[in-house]
Amino acid sequence: MKPLANKVALVVGASRGLGQGIAQAFTEAGATVIGVARNPAPGVIAADGTDPVVAGKLIGEHRPDVLALVAGAAPLLRPIHLHTWESFSANWYSDVRMTFHWLREALLLPLREGSRVIVMSSGAAVMGSPLSGGYAGAKATQRFVAAYAAQESKRLKLGIGISAVLPRLTPATELGRPAVVAYAAREGMIEQEYLARIGKPVTPALAGEAFVHLATTADGEGGAYLLTGDGLSPVGGNV
Predict the structure, then answer these.
(1) In degrees to the nearest 10, what's the CA dihedral of 91, 94, 97, 98?
(2) Is 129 within 8 Å of 76 (Cβ atoms)?
(3) What is the bridge-based pairing of β-strands 8-12 and 32-37?
(4) Which of 77, 112, 137, 236 could form a cystine bridge with 182, CB 3.0-4.6 A?
């Protein structure tokens, strides 16, 4: 039997990249998948994931067993002194805002006992991202917000598992490819040299496998996990 048979999975940011791979993996695992994305795509609800009304409406309508928060803005790739405050803070007003609204609604409804929420942060949350303005701080805050929500789920005895995934920089997505080029140039390397340094890439299929794992095992009850080309590994440190 498929591990997500008879389950509903809602994926915010399902139209491309890692989100598309996650939605496909959930489907292959037997779930009925509700995709949400800002840009219209076949089989995806076109909506702004940062809108609190959208979060409350879709969680209330679909009552997902699995909620994957994958959407986020592509940061402007330039050194700190070449950013404006608006470009520097962009991911706070998209990624963090989206995470806050959806987790808040998941706890308020609340989602059913045994449900899972998985927040996609970034490896930049622990490694930094000097060409991305406030991106690394925003992704670290997503991890914190997921941990705080997990603590509230436990304190209120809701039984909702909430975890965070921190994928390493990858050339396999529209967001990651320009960053690889920019960081290779910053280090004075050709792109292939830089790719060899960061190791096997995180692919949409690998991200999907990781999210299915967290949706169906005890690992998804909480915690943060770094995702590399070799798979998931726990990120230490208390939040």
Answers:
(1) -130
(2) no
(3) parallel
(4) 77
Note the pLDDT tens digit of each residue in 39-57. 877 889 999 999 999 999 9
| 112 phi/psi in degrees, rounded to 5 | -65, 150
**Beta bridge partners of residue 161, listed in sequence order:** 116
Tokens of 225: 């996990």
Query: CA torsion angle for 219, 22, 158, 58 (degrees, to 10)?
Result: 180
Residue written as token pair 């991200």: 207
pLDDT score recorded for residue 238: 56
Question: What are the Cα distances from residue 10, in Å, to 41, 64, 101, 152?
Answer: 15, 6, 15, 21
Torsion (CA) 191, 229, 21, 179 in degrees, nearest 10: -30
Alpha-carbon distance values, 99 to 81, 102, 227 (Å): 28, 5, 19
> Pick the residue with more confidence: 197 or 228?
228
Residue 145 has pLDDT above 60, yes or no: yes
What is the rounded distance in angstroms from the CA atom of residue 61 to the CA atom of residue 48?
A: 16
Residue with tokens 């060409």: 131
